[in-house]
Amino acid sequence: MKVGLTYNIKKVRSHESGVRSQKNAEFNSELRTPNSEHISSLPPDFFAEWDDEDTIEAVRTALAGRHNVVMIEADENAYEKLKSFRPQIVFNIAEGLWGQSRESQIPAMLDMLRIPYTGSGPLSLGICLDKARAKEILMHHGIPTPKFTIYDLRFMNLKIGNRQSKIENLKPLSFPLIVKPLYEGSSKGVRNNSVVNNTAELKERAEWVIAEYKQPALVEEFLEGREFTVAMIGNGNDVKTLPIVEINYSSLPSGVNPIYSYEAKWIWDTPDNPLEIFKCPADIGNKLKKDIETVCKAAFNILDIKDWCRIDIRLDAKENPHILELNPLPGILPDPKSNSCFPKAARAAGMDYDKLINIVLDTACKRHGIAI
User: Topology of 128-142+224-368 in CATH?
Assistant: First the structure.
């Protein structure tokens, strides 16, 4: 079977590596934001969601063991390549680049071309990337998620030049709060100081998010209980949860906040010096395990997720699970030392990397009625 692999390859800036590929060098010299800003003006974690060469090659190798794989980078030429190559199905791991619906771009093209693909459709991907919209839908259906509000230029006067900054219309949320960009993943914009304990700290963090990421800030109540992440495969009533992963914040440096921040994910935890930050399967009782799985399955189906997803969960003071966010394009780093949660959960379930990738593909083929 001809299988397309759509992807975005992580770009390396000159100050991040002593050696760059020619392709990345050319990209860096040409890439500009819609406002004609050079790549150097972008946040340091701008490409955090994109996959590195090792991950893309690992996915290609896994698929190539059974299928003829066509590589299609999710750039401005992707539509014409998809139209020309016409794969029977596409394994989609493309995150997109510009805009709050960037993860929807490749699936929308595929829908237009009537090419089946793995994973969720444009609407579900767009909703899940907009954390507030996802939380509103969850709340409507009675699924627990932390209370929240949004700050953007309608509610704040940013310190631009010599202008004075002020926060207005603070909704009745209880400190501590956590502040993060509204349309990001992979811990982008979540720093150790994103947990705030008073209005002054809230003002500083919200201003920083809006100015740095050019988007609203999501402000939600910070739950101080245990945190888990749940990998899921399947569809509808057949969706299954893999062994639950717990995030062990006691492994972080002393005195830091118990969150999986940018520092924790990309600085303190590295393949050369990995933190013992994840435990899988999580050490939890049957009741809590069932409670977590119940809310995750409900959210998966309510938001019309397809084939696979990773859902982040945090407990409140009474050990009730609350959904933090859904990741319908989960990270899948192949190296066990990289602490990538979906492959970690798969290994705990007895699946190696190749088997995981092909099970996702097979799940999508079954959904589309494609003979394997």
Answer: D-amino Acid Aminotransferase; Chain A, domain 1 (3.30.470)
The pTM (predicted TM-score) of the whole model is: 0.86
The residue to which tokens 């062994």 are assigned: 243
Enter the CATH code of domain 148-221: 3.30.1490
Q: What is the pLDDT of residues 255-270, one digit of tens each?
A: 899 998 888 877 787 7
The rounded Cα 78 to chain-centroid distance in angstroms is 22
Here the tokens at position 45 are 């974690």
pLDDT digits (tens, 9 = 90+) for 160-177: 333 334 444 455 799 999
Instruction: Taking each helix axis as running N to C, give the angle between helix 131-140 and helix 286-302, from 0 to 180 degrees, rounded to the nearest 10.
Output: 110
Strand order, beta sheet including 195-196: 148-151, 217-221, 177-181, 195-196
* DSSP three-state, residue 28: helix
Cα distance between residue 316 and residue 293, in whole Å = 16
Q: Which of 164, 173, 259 is nearest to 207 (CA)?
A: 164
Q: How far apart are CA 294 and CA 323, in angstroms?
A: 11
Question: Could you write out the DSSP letters of every residue in 221-275?
Answer: EPP-S-EEEEEEEE-GGG-EEPPPEEE-GGGSPTTS-SS--HIIIIIISBTTB--
